[in-house]
């Protein structure tokens, strides 16, 4: 077998996102040499419910992985490691003996567990959860989804009690399948999104696991993000999984935000603003969550995060449900055909509002329609809605940290939209820099895997690879901005509590 030389060293990143599975092959300069992507089915069984078929997640991820390797013509032994990054919080339960999921994956956006959340609130656990998991009590995180499965899926509790049930986030499920049942593990970043992991003690929280009725034996081993997660047999070769991280923390790493105060926003299905706070555990007083950053050594770094549930998804809605556009990128053209939003505001709270409002009962709303409004105003207001939501979480972050934010690194599908990025710079009053490699999530986990197997030797080496592709500076008149923001806040206030029973 030819040995990989210094020149021929590759990492494959498996990026399992909310709407698609992707495999990206990177060379040792961080350049993409191959990328394959496959969309998969979104299942909406009831209003506010979102599911995925766990087998389809695996099958689509496996096929893009093998296609990417086959298409780029690289010898499998030149791929030194696999990195796995994933949509976080989404919960899968499977039978250890049959290897089959006992229910569809319950997706992070799913609101079915709102009633369980109310019970937890009544039980007075809200503060305990905040202090120990860093999270806000919400249906977003995995714990209430696991409880729902135990309470509603026939035979689930019996399986759990007999030690035959396995619970995992998507990384754990993929690793278990890819290693043919040898690895049952996760990493700190994913564990910290379950609402069951104590992020100060770095262990599953017994009190919370007991409360939700989840035996700790059903939960995976938790490791660093750059670690040894077993091997996968690909075309007859064993390739190690050496990096695992939730997609948002992976993107923070891919954006080279290694130092305290460095910050990025990813515009995918949702928008996720993350600030590295170093070894400092910052407890938010303004509706953000504290979570763990991707770890490449034994040092734990914390992150302050603002999660916005609907970002690029509002653009998909314009395309797939309203049929106002045929392609996501059309939004940039139509938004600029009008001089302003003509008083139209869209709050895309399709699955409630995440940070900093945390309202499970808010729903999407269009405000300010008049006879002169046309589709371009609605399209523009949707894009503006994405930017305003990010502005709100950024304001919360400024208040929590006391830091001025002058520079925001951005990535993700919707960051390609120049109108959106300029509007973001305007309402946040900061410089917005789009990364050259927009697959920052995949790149981040490739770095984590590559650091483990020696493709890269230090984060300083990685930092030199980062480059910007575009930069946007604020240019909106301050008075105008004030006026717009005031209206936006009025709209947010008015869409709240819509689904709450009187
Ligand atoms: N040019 C564009 N303008 C606005 N939104 C876009 C554009 N291109 C893609 N998007 C949106 O970006 C999202 C896809 O981004 P991606 O990073 O692949 O998301 P995910 O990882 O959540 O699946 C989709 O919601 C899509 O509507
Ligand atoms: O799959 P994405 O990129 O929409 O990210 C989803 C987040 O991880 C949810 O917390």
TrEMBL record:
GO terms for cellular component: cytosol. ADP binds at residues 18, 22, 269, 312, 413, 417. Pathway: Polyol metabolism; glycerol degradation via glycerol kinase pathway; sn-glycerol 3-phosphate from glycerol: step 1/1. It is an enzyme of class 2 (transferase). Sn-glycerol 3-phosphate binds at residues 18, 88-89, 140, 247. GO terms for molecular function: ATP binding; glycerol kinase activity. Pfam families: FGGY_C (PF02782), FGGY_N (PF00370). Belongs to the FGGY kinase family. HAMAP family: Glycerol_kin. This is Glycerol kinase. It comes from Anaeroplasma bactoclasticum. The lineage of its organism: Bacteria, Bacillati, Mycoplasmatota, Mollicutes, Anaeroplasmatales.
């Amino acid at each position: 077998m030819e040995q990989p030389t210094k020149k021929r060293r590759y990492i494959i990143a498996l990026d399992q996102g909310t709407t698609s599975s992707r495999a990206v092959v990177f060379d040792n300069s961080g350049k993409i040499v191959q990328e394959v992507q496959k969309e998969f089915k979104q299942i909406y069984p009831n209003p506010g419910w979102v599911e995925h078929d766990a087998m389809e997640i695996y099958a689509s991820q496996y096929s893009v992985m093998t296609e990417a390797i086959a298409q780029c013509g690289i010898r499998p032994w030149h791929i030194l490691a696999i990195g796995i990054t994933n949509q976080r919080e989404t919960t899968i339960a499977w039978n250890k003996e049959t290897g089959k999921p006992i229910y569809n994956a319950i997706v992070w956006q799913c609101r079915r567990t709102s009633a369980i959340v109310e019970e937890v609130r009544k039980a007075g656990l809200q503060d305990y959860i905040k202090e120990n998991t860093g999270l806000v009590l919400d249906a977003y995180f995995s714990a209430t989804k696991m409880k729902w499965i135990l309470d509603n899926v026939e035979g689930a509790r019996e399986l759990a009690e007999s030690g035959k049930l396995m619970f995992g986030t998507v990384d754990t499920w993929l690793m278990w399948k890819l290693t043919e049942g040898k690895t049952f593990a996760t990493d700190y970043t994913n564990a910290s999104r379950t609402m069951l992991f104590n992020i100060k003690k770095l262990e599953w929280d017994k009190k919370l696991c007991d409360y939700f009725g989840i035996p700790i034996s059903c939960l995976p081993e938790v490791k660093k993000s750059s670690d040894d997660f077993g091997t996968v047999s690909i075309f007859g070769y064993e390739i190690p999984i050496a990096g695992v991280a939730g997609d948002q923390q992976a993107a923070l790493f891919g954006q080279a935000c290694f130092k305290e105060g460095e910050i990025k926003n990813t515009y995918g299905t949702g928008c996720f603003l993350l600030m590295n706070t170093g070894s400092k555990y910052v407890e938010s007083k303004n509706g953000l969550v504290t979570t763990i950053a991707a770890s490449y050594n034994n040092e734990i770094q914390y992150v302050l995060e603002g999660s916005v549930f609907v970002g690029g998804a509002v653009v998909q809605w314009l395309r797939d449900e309203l049929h106002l556009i045929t392609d996501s990128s059309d939004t940039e053209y139509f938004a600029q055909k009008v001089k302003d939003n003509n008083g139209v505001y869209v709050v895309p709270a399709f699955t409630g509002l995440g940070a900093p409002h945390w309202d499970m009962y808010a729903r999407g709303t269009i405000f300010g329609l008049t006879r002169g409004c046309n589709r371009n105003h609605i399209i523009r207001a949707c894009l503006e809605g994405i930017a305003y939501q990010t502005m709100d979480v950024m304001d919360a972050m400024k208040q929590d940290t006391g830091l001025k934010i002058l520079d925001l690194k951005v990535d993700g599908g919707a960051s390609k939209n120049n109108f959106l990025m300029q509007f973001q710079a305007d309402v946040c009053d900061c410089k917005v820099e789009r990364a050259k490699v927009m697959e920052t999530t995949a790149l981040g986990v490739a770095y984590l895997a590559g650091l483990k197997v020696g493709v890269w030797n230090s984060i300083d080496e990685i930092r030199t690879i980062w480059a910007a592709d575009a930069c946007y500076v604020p240019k909106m008149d301050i008075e105008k901005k004030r006026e717009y923001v005031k209206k936006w806040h009025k709209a947010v206030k008015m869409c709240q509590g819509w689904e709450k029973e009187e």
